[in-house]
Design goal:
Elements (H helix, E strand, L loop, with lengths): L1 H4 L9 H11 L1 H16 L7 E2 L11 H13 L7 E6 L7 H10 L3 E4 L3 E3 L4 E8 L6 H19 L5 E5 L1 H35 L3 H26 L15 E2 L2 H31 L2 H28 L7 H33 L8 H6 L22
Parallel strand pairs: 1-7
Antiparallel strand pairs: 2-5, 2-6, 3-5, 4-5
Helix pairs in contact: 2-10, 2-11, 3-8, 3-11, 5-6, 7-8, 7-9, 8-9, 8-11, 9-10, 9-11, 10-11
């Protein structure tokens, strides 16, 4: 009857409830198996190479690709990504000719155009064509060699200065800057997320677990991008004709979106778990009821997002494909492996320690929940699903 449905020990016969009970009964196996899977997917991120795909990576049906191939065939691969060297000659005009000769003599340069000199501004420009294509590692090595060895040797003792630019050098510099700043950006987001979750759930381990697992989801997505686009694994299945570097802005873009989405799912699930735990004090039962109450909604929301982002893969531009593959993969993994396996298994094994908060920290953190905190009741019967 209605009264029986409200009894604390009532066990709803739903698939999500049975799944939660199954995972908590086999928590160690699910924790180890899911963690190994996610770490294996994230491992390739160590080989992440940031850059920018040029028109040579687009399908041959695109006019940009045909133009790229015609230029490369007629003038050499480096013609698609010339280096522009700007020289400040306002204090010394005599360096232009020696500099042009030194640049032309470099083994990575096939030709240097006639210097363009503007006496009114005191600036000279040299256009140097590399021997290799814009995406070739050898081209980046040429840029570094010009900046570190060739140009300083010519300008030593002169007041003139020179800088290597152009599209190829710019994209390489952008990738380096992103790699340099990425750890700070990630650390700031993780710290703020931890603090906000600690305030919301009045716990230390729950926000720490949430931050680590969400970071694991993003890392796995990065790893899949490396495997597909840099290593070419199954690339032909999504219409990628050649390996390409990961576009420099994609990791930052993906991290912001994915961490926000995964944190939404985390808060939605943990809010229900905490609500049930405060009601009856049984941690395992609270985890099962949290899964049962939110599993359908989280899965439906994730499926919608996966379907939307999977549509990006149908485009012909490798940059759009990267966004689609990365976002769809991360959300799928987060809503399945993380939210339905790692989270319940971890919370089951941690037990009541999930909700531990030092008194000194409790006094420092502001109280966002105006409702009085209920003391968990003692549960005398065995935990459900154990």
């Amino acid at each position: 009857g209605a009264d029986g449905a409200r009894r604390p020990n009532h066990r709803p016969s739903t698939g999500w409830y049975r799944w939660g009970a199954h995972v908590t009964r086999n928590a160690t196996a699910y924790l180890v198996g899911a963690a190994v899977l996610m770490i294996a997917l994230a491992a390739p991120v160590l080989a992440l190479d940031l850059g920018f795909p040029d028109d040579g990576t687009k399908p041959e049906s695109r006019t940009e690709r045909r133009a790229y191939d015609l230029i490369a065939d007629g003038f050499g691969p480096g013609a698609n990504g010339p280096l522009v060297i700007a020289v400040d000659i306002s204090q010394d005009k005599s360096v232009v000719a020696p500099l042009a000769e030194a640049v032309a003599a470099d083994p990575g340069i096939t030709a240097v155009g006639e210097p363009a000199i503007d006496d009114s501004t005191g600036v000279a420009t040299l256009v140097a064509q590399p021997t290799t294509s814009p995406q070739d590692v050898a081209t980046q090595e040429t840029v570094l060699r010009l900046r570190g060895d060739v140009i300083p040797a010519v300008l030593d003792g002169s007041s003139a200065t020179a800088h290597v630019g152009g599209q190829t050098a710019t994209f390489a510099d952008l990738g380096d800057r992103v790699q340099e700043r990425m750890p700070r950006f990630v650390a700031a987001v993780l710290l703020l997320s931890f603090l906000l979750l600690a305030v919301l759930f009045r716990s230390v381990l729950v926000p720490l677990k949430a931050v680590v697992l969400n970071l694991l989801s993003v890392g796995a997505a990065y790893g899949v991008l490396v495997m597909v686009f840099q290593w070419g694994w199954a690339a032909d299945l999504i219409g990628v004709e050649s390996t390409v570097p990961i576009v420099s802005f994609i990791p930052l873009f993906m991290f912001a979106i994915l961490f926000g989405l995964s944190m939404d799912y985390e808060v939605f699930l943990l809010s229900r778990v905490r609500e049930q735990y405060r009601r009856h004090g049984d941690n395992t039962r609270a985890v099962i009821e949290g899964i049962a109450g939110t599993g359908r909604t989280i899965t439906a929301a994730a499926l919608i997002m996966v379907a939307v982002f999977s549509g990006f893969v149908l485009g012909s531009d490798p940059v759009v494909k990267m966004m689609g593959v990365g976002l769809a993969t991360a959300i799928f993994l987060d809503a399945t492996v993380v939210r339905l396996m790692l989270v319940p298994a971890t919370m089951k094994l941690l037990g009541n320690a999930n909700w531990w908060l030092p008194q000194w920290l409790n006094r420092l953190l502001p109280e966002l929940d105006s409702a009085p905190v209920e003391e968990p009741v003692e549960v005398g019967s065995p935990q459900i699903g154990v």
